[in-house]
């Protein structure tokens, strides 16, 4: 059976793509952010995943407001990046892990998650930048399964539902007949709001409480409905739902391997955690 080696949860601000392409890692603005990553590289070197299941939210590249699935799973042979209008360089294509993708789809539907299955899918910055941060060579050593959660157009799935989705994905991965080593990603957040009267809103106290909760009380954020999450984390801060799903996939108990938190990157409070499941 497959093994989940752990989860990496991180922000996915487009400006990171520009910083990578301009080699700004040592620049004073960027250094506190990029300094968070070498421990992740060392951890990846030690656990050597062959597959990444990536919880992320598309921002209008693959799904637009006319058709917006609540939950979508990629089952494509490969995933390409495309121009989203930010002017950031595109990255090499990702190979899909189709056997796991169909196994996840079967298990999720059996668990009564009515997912949209995508046999063609382009992936945006929310998918590509965390991968580029994890694997700076961009010679991707993992095959991927994208799991997309709508945080763009209301109504959004509840935190409770996203936690349950993550649990279901975790059970399915552990039941997959393969000796693969699987890393789970959750990309988005933490607190930020890009538009409206509260544009620029950041809530450090909430972010730190949320990060802590993932280790000691992982269902803590499921007490909040979507409006409460927007109030506490900002309109785009609801992307923290990806972190919740990724954490839930690890099972009941997890420990922190590494964490970093830095304000701001662009308009966003950038958070990073590596968590490993504990038996
Ligand atoms: C920013 C943050 C995001 O999560 C995103 O998807 C786009 C932009 C930002 O802070 O600039
Ligand atoms: Fe985003």
Description:
The chain has 279 residues and is α/β, with parallel strands linked by helices. 33% of the residues lie in helices and 23% in strands. The chain has helices at residues 15-21, 31-34, 38-47, 98-110, 125-134, 159-175, 204-216, 226-233, 240-248; strands at residues 3-10, 51-56, 71-74, 78-81, 94-95, 116-118, 122-123, 143-149, 181-187, 254-265, 268-277. Strands 6-3-8-2-9-1-11-10 form an eight-stranded mixed beta sheet, with helices on both faces. A hairpin with a 2-residue loop joins strand 10 and strand 11 (268-277). Helix 4 (98-110) packs across helix 6. It starts with a strand and ends with a strand. It binds 3,4-dihydroxybenzoic acid and fe (iii) ion.
């Amino acid at each position: 059976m497959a093994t989940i080696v752990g989860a990496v949860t991180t922000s996915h601000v487009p400006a990171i793509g520009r910083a990578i392409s301009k080699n700004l890692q040592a620049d004073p603005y960027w250094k506190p952010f990029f300094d968070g990553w070498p421990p992740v590289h060392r951890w990846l070197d030690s656990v050597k995943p062959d597959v990444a299941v990536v919880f992320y939210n598309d921002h209008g590249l693959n799904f637009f407001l006319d058709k917006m699935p609540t939950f979508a799973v990629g089952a494509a042979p490969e995933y390409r990046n495309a121009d989203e209008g930010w002017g950031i360089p595109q990255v090499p294509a990702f190979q899909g892990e189709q056997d796991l993708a169909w196994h996840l789809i079967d298990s999720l539907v059996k668990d009564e998650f009515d997912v949209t299955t995508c046999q063609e899918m382009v992936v945006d910055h929310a998918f590509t930048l965390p991968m580029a941060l994890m694997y700076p060579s961009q010679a991707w050593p993992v095959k991927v399964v994208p799991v997309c959660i709508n945080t763009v157009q209301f109504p959004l799935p509840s935190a409770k539902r996203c936690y349950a989705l993550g649990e279901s994905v975790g059970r399915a991965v552990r039941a997959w007949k393969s000796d693969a080593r699987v890393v789970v990603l959750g990309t988005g957040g933490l607190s930020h709001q890009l538009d409206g009267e509260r544009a620029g809103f950041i809530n450090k106290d909430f972010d730190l409480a949320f990060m802590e909760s993932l280790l000691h009380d992982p269902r803590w954020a499921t007490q909040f409905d979507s409006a409460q999450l927007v109030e506490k984390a900002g309109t785009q801060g609801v992307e923290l739902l990806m972190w919740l799903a990724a954490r839930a996939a690890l099972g009941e108990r997890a420990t922190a391997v590494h964490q970093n938190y830095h304000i701001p990157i662009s308009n966003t409070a950038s958070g990073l955690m590596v968590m490993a499941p504990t038996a």
